[in-house]
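PROTOCOL LOG
Step 1. Enter all chains and additional molecules of the complex.
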Amino acid sequence: MSTEVTPRRKEELQEVTIRFAGDSGDGMQLTGTQFTNTAAVLGNDVSTLPDFPAEIRAPAGTTYGVSGFQIHFSSFDIHTPGDAVDALVVMNPAALKVNLEDLRENGILIINEDSFTEQNLKLAGYAENPLEDNSLTNYRVFRIPVTKATLEALEELGMKGKDAARSKNFYALGVVLWLYNRPLEPTLDFINKKFKNKPEAIKANERALRAGWYFGETAEFFTSTYDVPKAELPAGQYRKISGNEALAYGLIAAAVKSGKPLFYGSYPITPASDILHELAKHKNFGVKTFQAEDEIAAVCSCIGASFGGALSVTGTSGPGIALKAEAMGLGVMMELPFVVVNVQRGGPSTGLPTKTEQSDLNQVLYGRNGECPMPVIAAKSPSDCFHAAFEACKISMQHMVPVVLLTDAYLANGAEPWNIPDASLIPEIEIEHPTEWDGEFTPYRRDERGVRPWALPGTPGLQHRLGGLEKKNITGGVNYDPDNHELMIKLRQEKIDKIADEIPPATVTGNPEGGELLIVTWGGPFGTAFAATNRQRSKGRDVSHLHLRWLNPMPSNVEEILRRYKKVIVAEINMGQLINIIRSKFLIDAKPLNKMKGRPFTITEVEAAMERELGIPSEPISS
Amino acid sequence: MSTATPDKPKYTIKDFASDQDVRWCPGCGDYSILSAVKKVLAQRDRPPEEYCFISGIGCSSRFPYYMNTYGLHTIHGRAPAVATGMKIVRPDIETWLITGDGDGLSIGGNHFMHLIRRNVNLRLMLFNNRIYGLTKGQYSPTSEQNKRTKSTPMGSLDFPVDPLCLAIGAGATFVARGVDMHPKHLIETLSRAADHKGTAFVEIYQNCNIFNDGAFAHAQDRKVRSDNVIELVHGEPMIYGADLNRGIIRNGDHLESVTIGENGVTKDDLLVHDETCPETVAFSLARMKYPDMPEPIGVIRAVDRPCYDDLVNEQVEHAVETRGNGDLQKLLTGTETWDVNG
Ligand code: SF4
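Step 2. Run joint prediction.
Step 3. Record the structure below.
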């Protein structure tokens, strides 16, 4: 190997989107995560989008077994995992087939050419070998014998070929780290930690990683390398955080700040299980996790734990909510606090277990028998899952009501840098439990916010029974009187309406005074709409953005805001659910922007919708 | 000790009665069970506020409203899950779970099994009346085959399930049976359940005089019951009959009912009841069915196994002991950080 290295041109870029794609057994999630960590530690803003198959090990080489990980890193504040891909790394033909359409013209395409065998081409459904039929001329193609090179690099270790080939993702990572001028150290540290008890794996992965890096440096293959300078983020200590992690931390923070034990009852379901896994690690916070026998038992255990006085939470995805509906209604009737987390995924039915969607808003608002209102909050970014979880717990316990917290697969698995909060500045959550009562205890006597007392078993003299039958106002006894029933329905609703007094008013990005066009979002599309709004405004367009975190009740100023704009677009990853509420509640002729492909909006798509609405002919898409 | 000195009971039956009017049909077996439970609690020295009665849906599930304790009347079949959550966070609250054959074995069959295998520390009373009472008389999972009801005018087809066998199969640490109209024995059995650490399962034969009157007449009717049921007592031979001249022996791999004095059988040949017997023996006892065999009542099996609620809390304590109390700032900070200077 030559040691003479030709100096390369180093280009500075402001943002780059890379996607690693391969077979689900190729370790692409790990590769992507490692690249992300390296970029983040170097001070870039990052945003990621993992994309994996529902099957754990789909047949190797098939298109439905392709696993991908996209990372967007930049020198400025970003809010999305990127639109068009600048560099695509594919480990096999199937990965090329599935991902090529997202690679921009003239984008970098790094291909593991060893995997382009006749059999793999066939499995991927290629009649012709795309490496030889000139179909890739629009891209900067770099064919690298990743598998062979990895085997060569590991030759001295005397491993079996199959075992050695496993390190090929580290080889590919080495190449890409070199190409983007990222250091190897964070990954070397990671390898040493991760494979602590497998010295063989440490050696193999280290060698593969370095071999990939040296290949970049010596092979005279790439004519330039790229650098993305640090982002100007607000000062502070940062870490990378995913939505599910942040959510789990938010629950623990709420438990600490309310002085309550956290009870988490849940049944494994994609994409929510990681919350259970994360919480199970933190029992030294007094966290009690309960893997229930089913979704119904999970939510019911929360009702029992809540009656017992714990901060109680259950987590699931859409199909689980369907099963929990009856018990959620019981919670509304008993007026007991607990939080129901719904990490949404594509539906209906089993749908797209690993892909994102926002199609459960109707379900959580309306999917129960009877007049059964529940507060609903939706997180807007991976790190906001922390704050949304904290708020959901606080509102639930302070208002004696079960609360739904919506996130989605995109937020749950996506990651971003997080300016680590100062734990001492997180406010306490004040909770009171009565210890005595003037006269006979009346469990349904409400305070001025419409909230009933949370009396705990063990308290002498406050014994009471709660149930799903209609309650008599104040005393809580079983009661079927028609006037009482109507009154109780109204009281339960009023209690939730009054929560609007405590949530912050909605704010507008752009021109809060009003104007031409307002885009309204909730949940995951926040970042995309925010970025699209800023881009349009920089082009001089009168566009503003309203994002709703609380969907029930909505902040009290929402109607007022909506009326200040001539046109309103509501963008959602569904057929149009929030838009129906906005139309019926405020009689506003909002226009929908919908997408149901299991993937988030791209900024380009949102900008195009804005321009359409503004009557501006869209520029031809080139990115 | 949880039992008060008998001469100076701390509490009376009245202390455990709520002010709600009891709304079961007159003559319903539930009344005598309610009264038995209150008597059992009055014999113990635990105050009413340290009890929680949790039920599902059905006639029996109205039970919590009639107790002056904490209580939850939940949804159909799910009371075991509610109670499990409650016990995990409040192992100090003495919990009684009330269910029926429909609530516990049909819609709630799943939770029934998991509650028992986890051995959550609570009393589980199943009022078996072999019918759906609250929905006005459809057959239940314990109804005999060919039962004619409104939903089965040509006779039911389902083979009935046996609650005791189900409980034993799920790994129950305490399995017993009582009869509503045999209050003295029922009180003794429930007291034993109250003393047990773990899920104490008690099936109670309960007469629904409106929709299934006399379903358990063989075990309830004073005139015939001694010939049809056998009161199991730990360490005592299995003997029964109005004249106490009948008993149970093992014959090969099955149990057989014999008459003392016939075919050379003496009292010494009878099986001696052992509550710690292996599941297989308990299972054989539970399978004894009228009219071929006397049906066992009393404590069939009682063994020790750690309770789920204790284990959950022990793990938490262990985590605190080994890792110290959780530090929120450390958690939020994690292990990989970087600084951005403004
Ligand atoms: S219907 Fe039957 S079980 Fe129900 S209360 Fe009446 S008698 Fe009792």
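Step 4. Note key features.
The mean pLDDT of chain A is 95.
DSSP finds 20 helices and 23 strands in chain A.
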